[in-house]
Amino acid sequence: MRPSIRSALERSAELTRNNRLVDGMRMGEAAINQATEDEQPEITQWLADHAGDFTGQDD
Hints:
Structural class: mainly alpha
Radius of gyration: 11 Å
Distance between the termini: 23 Å
Strand content: under 5%
Number of strands: 0
Helix content: over 70%
Oligomer: single chain
């Protein structure tokens, strides 16, 4: 996955943790929409591995 997409997903998680769900979702969706088909599996795995980043809870 490109660094710009990873950065946007990390920022999305930060916004979501800070009770800015709409902004976080908007940023995450934009990053996912920019991803190529080849990047999709890595993004899916990243999201599964980092679910706690969005909630602030450890897995």
